[in-house]
């Protein structure tokens, strides 16, 4: 389970997202945030790791999902960030697993499981995406 104390052991956190920012993100998306990501945003409004991982803040998530047409190409998924190299990180409605896909492809057949959960990605894998772990 993620909490500020265990995240602060690995990262410099941002202040938590405000309830208004979370409501604005959901309004912009036209649907609720994934519960695991909403919980993360209540701990840190986005995250930049020492490696390549970038997790979106509440103010950016709707725009990023619109720009990449996630709802059209991957219905039920939410882009939550990227690896700073063209791979998107996504969560699927009501599933804990984190997925990766090339931002130029965005097809379900190209999705790969990056971690069993956001907590596993951030704590056990220390924010390293598949490309970093397999290098």
TrEMBL record:
It comes from Alloalcanivorax xenomutans. Residues 16-109 form the Knr4/Smi1-like domain. InterPro entries: Knr4/Smi1-like_dom (IPR018958), Knr4/Smi1-like_sf (IPR037883). This is SMI1/KNR4 family protein. SMART domains: SMI1_KNR4. Transmembrane segments: none annotated. Pfam families: SMI1_KNR4. It comes from the Bacteria.
